[in-house]
Amino acid sequence: MVTGYAGWQEDELRREQARLQAEYEAYRSLNLKLDMSRGKPCPEQLQLSNEMLDILPSGEELRAEDGTDCRNYGGLDGLPEAKRFFAEMLGVQSSEVIVQGNSSLNLMYDALARAMLFGVLGSEQPWSRLPSVKFLCPSPGYDRHFAICEQLNIEMITVDMTPEGPDMDAVERLVAEDDSIKGIWCVPKYSNPGGITYSDETVERLARMKTKAGDFRIFWDDAYTVHHLTSRHDELKNMLEACSNAGHPDRVFIFASTSKVTFPGSGVAALAASRDNLSHLRKQLSVQTIGPDKVNQLRHIRFLKDMEHLGRHMEKHAAIIKPKFDLVLSKLESGLGSKDIASWSKPSGGYFISLDTMDGCAQEIVRRAAEAGVTLTPAGATYPYGRDPRDRNIRIAPTYPSLEELAQAIDILCVCVQLVSIDRILADQ
User: 125: buried, middle or exposed (CB in 10 Å: 19+, 13-18, 0-12)?
Assistant: First the structure.
């Protein structure tokens, strides 16, 4: 029995098209405003951390474990207990961690901007003085990584993502032949948007590969390292250790934060790297800042405490958002599963579901969804320069809407996917 749209007769497709169009017009008449454009925690998730706001009594001196007065200047690279917390979270040593402000994206931007201004440890000259600077961008990937490169005039080279991580055959070939390729963006665990966790082999190949640029850097954005959806956690091989074992100890910058653990606008961010990299970085930071917000670091550590408490806190997050992921996956299966017009990721952590439509359909699907009141991440945003070469990837962000809103939004999305797919099939017949 033929079930996929491609096997239907034209008259069957026309009848289905008419039925779906009537359903679509009914949704349009509701004047909905449903936003699934960004991966934001919902209000119920933010509520989980409200206790942190009252955890520092105003009548006491706010001192860290080493006696540092957190209200005053100093503490360039973070409180000792904050460094220890992130070290445990990332599987590195406290001496390999610097803890800074509220945003890991800010740390990434600063690290790349400093490389353009001054180079990195081992650079012969600032990257901005080179004829060109290029970065590898595994895609679909994180749009804000790409925006940083675009603003700093760094040329982006798209590398396909596979179920194991970036296409390493392509990565190894490119970095071996071009010394203007200075780095690669990676979201190695529960990747944005595909939910992929890099395999051990991918980590090892990234660590040991030969690069023509002696100052090549891996920007390892470990944003979702503790963001599990189930009790079965993906395991990610330690990249800092892998680089050290491969004889390239300075190759990686690891970034992480509590942005979606506590409050996205008021979290704490950290950078992990080799001790030599951090010594080099401290000299630059000493001019840039007198010190980070140590009061915020202190209240985070007193609230989250250690890995055991962090784990329990993240289980509360999962209890709120996993039903939303389950709802999206169920509706995609019931609405599209038998049509052979789309595929989607089934992540075990992170914040997104990646939907791949038929080639040439994503932009039109996003446009029609918007007309029916559903705002999605722009089609193409998961690729450098906003250009998906196959125009098929759509990032779904299930966390912020309520279950009721989410159900309605995915129903509308499924109708749009079917309508645009039928249009494409009929045009190709």
Answer: exposed
